[in-house]
Amino acid sequence: TMEEIESFVIVRTLLCDIVDPSRITHKDTLSYFGILLDDNIRKWICRVQLKETAKYLILPTEEKGKFTKYPIESLNEIIKFKDDLIKAVSLYEDINKND
Asked: How far apart, in Å, are the Cα atoms of 81 and each of 76, 77, 99?
């Protein structure tokens, strides 16, 4: 949907200083819209659930297979989670290294 693509663009923009935007991709499933690093479903940055009655931003935790689900009123609230999105990317690679 347009909302899913909008969430992807927001996340990609928030992370453009941390990781090359071309490495951030998305995958749509029946239950959520996944935003991925390197087009790898095991390297998910966040998931967005857009239901008729509620919207959620889902973020991975350091504990493998676990996540935290945050209710959001609008997609613009994703901006508030920039630090959490950066932390999600750091689960998969050292973002402090100098290339």
From this structure: 10, 8, 26
> Which phi and psi angles does 90 have, rounded to 5°?
-65, -15
- Cβ proximity of 73 and 55 under 8 Å: yes
Interval 62-72: pLDDT, tens: 988 899 999 99
Most distant CA atoms of the chain, gap in Å: 44
Residue 40 one-letter amino acid:
N
Predicted TM-score (pTM) of this structure: 0.91
Q: Quick check: 70 and 59 in contact, CB under 8 A?
A: yes
| 71 neighbors 78 (Cβ within 8 angstroms) | no
pLDDT of residue 96: 62
